[in-house]
Amino acid sequence: MAQRNWKDDVIDRQRARIDELESQIYNDWLGRRLKEEYYLIRSAIEAGDNEEAQIHLKKISLLDDKGRIPLDADIDPLYRTVDDLDFSVRTYNCLKRANVITVEQMIELSFDEYMHIRNLGKKSYLEIKEKLARFGFKLEDPAD
Q1: By mean pLDDT, which of 10-19, 82-91, 123-132 is the weakest?
Q2: Mean of pLDDT values over 53-70
Q3: What is the average pLDDT across 14-32?
Q4: CB count, 10 Å around CB of 38?
Q5: In whole angstroms, what is the distance from residue 69 CA to residue 44 CA?
Q6: Which burial class, exposed, middle or buried, applies to 1 when counting CB atoms under 10 A from its CB (0-12, 13-18, 19+)?
Q7: Hey, where are the domains in the chain?
Q8: For residues 144 and 14, what is the distance between their CA atoms, to the nearest angstrom?
Q9: CA-CA distance, 78 to 52, in Å (whole number)?
Q10: Taking phi first (over 0 means left), then psi (-120 to 50 degrees means alpha), and beta for anything else, what does residue 137 get?
Q11: Helix ranges, 47-119 (H)
């Protein structure tokens, strides 16, 4: 057996710390997602909208281990969020920054409105269009 040196020990400690940080990030992210759904449930109940509260309860029950609702889950596509659609990092960040959260909000925007979102270009628009097409929604074609 090869003798371990101090470099191997440092590498092992770094790997353990990375695993610990990844776990913490995952738990924080999932916790935020659950907290978001909880507040939506609470506000729906306070507004007397039991149907909306039931939708958010169902969404919580469908969350996978990454905090997303699987694409094949039985839920109205309009209630899906940007988090569920597995966008590229750029597209995801652009939509979040523009406060576009749900599929319903995405289908209401025009091509020009998308182009006015900072850092969102035609490639990101085509990605959004492709993801929404999976649910039967059609966005306008970009003007070439």
Answers
A1: 10-19
A2: 72
A3: 69
A4: 13
A5: 20
A6: exposed
A7: 1-67, 76-144
A8: 49
A9: 12
A10: beta
A11: 50-62, 89-97, 103-108, 111-115
Which tokens belong to 18? 């990375």
What tokens were used for 98?
């523009």
Residue written as token pair 């039931």: 54
Taking the CA of residue 107 as centre, how many other CA atoms within 13 Å lie in the half-sphere pointing to its CB?
A: 17
Is the pLDDT confidence value at 144 over 60? no
- Structural element, H or E, at residue 130: helix 122-133
Least confident span in 45-49, 58-62, 86-90, 125-129: 58-62
Percentage of the chain with pLDDT > 90? Answer: 27
Distance of CA 48 to the CA centre of its chain: 27
Closest CA to 33 of 53, 62, 73: 62
Class of domain 76-144: mainly alpha
